[in-house]
Structure formats: structure tokens, C-alpha cells
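[Automated response] Your request has been received and processed.

Submitted sequence:
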Amino acid sequence: DQKVRTDVRTAHTMPSAAEREAVQAQHPKGMIYIPAGPFVSGRFHMDPFANKGAEALHDVVELEGYLIDAFEHPNAMNAPPTVRVTWDMAKDTCEAEGKRLCSAQEWEKACKGPRNNIYAYGNTFDPDFCGEGLPSEYASGALKECRSDWGVFDMSGGFKEWTATSMAGDEARRMVKGGSLSSPEKGTRCAYATDESAGYNHPTIAFRCCRDVDAPPVAPPEPEPEEGDGEAEGQP
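Generated structure:
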């Protein structure tokens, strides 16, 4: 486990802070740049809570660079995440904002960070970082240490999140990643995933959006007309 982590981290070119900021400046606010490079997908040997029967052993996967929302939609600190959404609703919302749903692998890389941790915050389950599953009162970023080394919040705790990835080629079922009510030790691991019917919605399922690095700029919203603008009614 440690060797593959070290090899991948050595092989991954890390941008400078200035380079990260330059990329992020070309995209909607509140998105985190995850640079192109390898990450360790799947479970590790020394993971006591892995589901060895269902989860594939780790493999090195190369991903293109992308951006991911720092928080679950609506991607704002201290805002309640958007829940009770179907997969199509999540997909349409991201696209309306000039973004897209993240793939399961993009989500996992953002969670594991450059050190490829088991949890977003490290390799040992600790409820002090992200709580024990879904809190009764929850706001994005409320737990300041519940973030990955990339700077993405609430991935090992809180809500499950829709991804763009279908389950075993079945377009009617989509993978969800993230929080788990029943077993946080297992279900808040970055590698953990379940699947749901695309038409399903639940108060514990949210989503966040991603964006390609070379995606075109998003047009700013048109300003609302001020009261009194334009000609008065009845004037020629």
C-alpha cells in the first residue's frame, strides 16, 4: 500500500499555488482544481473496513485535470446541501450552471487527495473530523477539518452524492459516493460506493458538480432591470 502511494505521489506533477489560482480564475468561483495525473483507485490491503468481496483492490488510474465544487450543491460555505434530488435533477442542475456531474473516479481522487488516503482526512477512521454519518443538523463546511488535502469539503461524512458513473453499464442505476448512516467506518471511505436507481431521491442524497479544465467560460447572469428602467407604460 505505502509503495504504490509513494510511487503515485512521486509520479504526479503538482502545480504551484499560482498555477492553481490561474486555472481556478477561469472557472466559476468555489471550484477546486485537481491536476492531471495518476491516483490510487479502489481499496487498500491494510483497510480493515473494506468490503473485500465487492470492492476491487487498488489500481493506478490516470485522470485528466478537472475542477470540482468545494462543497456539495449549492457549493456555498454554511449552506444546507441540496437533497431529495434524482440523478436527472442533479445532472440538469450542474449543466445549467455550465458544469457536469463528476465521475465516480473524479470524486474518489478528490476525496483521497495527493497522498491517496483511505478517508478524506487520513487513513484511520476518526469521528471527530467528519462526524458519525449524517448529523441531524448539517451545513456545508461546518466541520472545518472534514476536507481532503486538495481542499474539498465533506467527502468523508455527511450526505451521499450522485456521480455520473453508471453501475455495471446499467444506465438506469448510478453510483453514489460519500456518507453512510449505517456504518460510517466503512461508508465514509473514499473508495466506498453504492448504487441507486436514477429516479430515486432521498433526504440523505446530495450532489456536487465538476468541470473540464478546457471548458468555455460561463457567461455571467444578466443583471436584473432596475425599477424605472425603460419607457413608462403608454409612452410612444
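Summary generated for your ticket: The CA atoms of residues 31 and 69 lie 4 Å apart. The radius of gyration is 19 Å.
If you did not submit this request, please reply to this message.
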